[in-house]
Amino acid sequence: MAVLGGRRGAGVMAAAVAGALLIAACSSSEAAEGSVAAADVVHVHGLGVSQEGAYVATHHGLYEVVGDSVRAASDAGHDLMGFTVAGPGALLASGHPVSPDDADLVVATVEGGIGRSRDGGRSWEQASSEQLVFVDWGSRGVYGITADGQLAVSEDDGDTWDALGTVSGQPEALLAADDAIYAAVAGKGIVRSTDGGQTFEMVVDAGA
Questions:
Q1: Which CATH superfamily groups domain 106-205?
Q2: Which of 7, 30, 149, 186 is disulfide-compatible with 170, CB 3.0–4.6 A?
């Protein structure tokens, strides 16, 4: 992927709603006890930051990755699409990545590249032609990943992109948390980067 440099900062995490489904988040004490098999965490739709690690929203329910283990975060088998964490105790499904620094700024993957709205989604412009399948806001700006696993970051609201590391496999979801970047990989599991997206390690091995 052709990636050009850009250096205008924006931070923070994605939170957005489009026909959203609000569900109650379990606290650690309320979460279903015991770990689940990593192989059960399949058909991932989205990732979100939890108090202890990362939520994994799937076709069959919500899970939580804590350290190197995974557990059920709820006993409800919701099919969670477009998942994001709106705040403590509130999870949303469906949406586009909105910058919490600017409620009117939305960056999303669209046909032909990256689309951007500066008026809360009422009008859109083409930000770049980068072919990304998922985007999320993080510490450096907005992160994106291609269908073949190339991670990149934009520090100018999607105009230009810097290449980072690569994920082996087909991405199903992307999360740029404050201290780590997570990606769900089809048929493999959840990988995590703690060096800004340069390298990744498997934390939930769905093939184990």
A1: TolB, C-terminal domain (2.120.10.30)
A2: 186
